[in-house]
Amino acid sequence: MLTxxxxxxxxxxxxxxxxxxxGAFNDNLYKNAMVLFVVYAVYSSAAEEAMFSxxxxxxxxxxxxxxxxxxxxxxxxxxxxxxxxxxxLAEIGIMTVGAAGxxxxxxxxxxxxxxxxxLLLALFAMGVHSTxxxxxxxxxxxxxxxxxxxxxxxxxxxxxxxxxxxxGTILAGWIAVEIAAVLVIALxxxxxxxxxxxxxxxxxxxxxxxxxxxxxxxINVVKGSMQDARVFYAILAISFxxxxxxxxxxxxxxxxxxxxxxxxxxxxxxLVVFSIGVAIGSVSINALLKGEVSARYSxxxxxxxxxxVVAFHVVCRMWVPEAGGLYSVGEFxxxxxxxxxxxxxxxxxxxxxxxxxxxxxxxxxxxDKSQTARTVAANNLVNSFAMVGGSALAMxxxxxxxxxVDQLLLAAAMSLISAWLGxxxxxxxxxxxxx
Length: 435
Fold this sequence. Notes:
The protein has 16 helices and no strands. With about 425 residues, the chain is an all-alpha fold.
């Protein structure tokens, strides 16, 4: 069996990996440049900032609700490599619109009437882009890799994705928005070029007609994918995980500014630590499982994640805000509670990565190769409802004045539900395992 490092030298994996990494990097550079600029330079109240963050999260997620079924059908019925090339070409146009919004916002020109609508339009379009690319990045793996390589490939994709999030997040917090505007277009062009190198991945099995009825096809793709108990419980567990993720990512920027009185660079540092942690967890679980696709460690992993969320809440409660402004990165790092805070974040992320990677591998290894993209699309669709629900819940809690710090406890409580679903999945895995 090839090691993870060996996979990175193979054309059947490397171009897809590079395309995904560039896309994740660009996506997060744009999203964080936008959110951080608006939170720190446009709005001046915690409620407005949290509401904008929630609206942005909701807009990015909405396309997954609308188009996941269609994207899954297309990926299973057409050559996945061809779809990648077309999607990455569209990214160039999307980022051009987003770049225009960033530039207009930076020069304070028609911020509310033109700049922010352009920023949100591009964010929605990037959600559409991710909806159509998402099923392919996982579904193509069992087509190009051997079964015993799929967990390693999935772990690499997850690790690469979160390291790309790390890089995009660092840049978003440290460079001017004008520079970000240029970079997002350049990275989209590089992503299109990398996507052109992905080997052909034609449809497997019988090519069926595409159902363009969004409602009917969405119901059918979810029903069809959940007939296997392992897939059913994996999708439910992943969905609760991303509900937790939606709540946490919505809270990070306003929490950094208003509770920890930290600069936008520190807010970026939080996301950096989180991304490194998920990458570590994604690779570590493959080493623990030795390439076996199993939910064995998932329940314990998400319980540990919830405990770290509670610890993070406690540290935030103990935090002493800066009276004279916002902490810089240098000032923040020297604070006595900074190390425990960052360690809690790292723990949340490592445990989360260990929980979710095997579940994604389930989606592509227990179904027929002709159904993998639709299975991933069904997962994305259910996940999107969960994330929209998480966004709506965060907005509702803000509306009734529940503090951002106390909202962390909700995320911790939801970890118990994910653990229960992970345990049920593991029992189904044992029950359905070959004798």
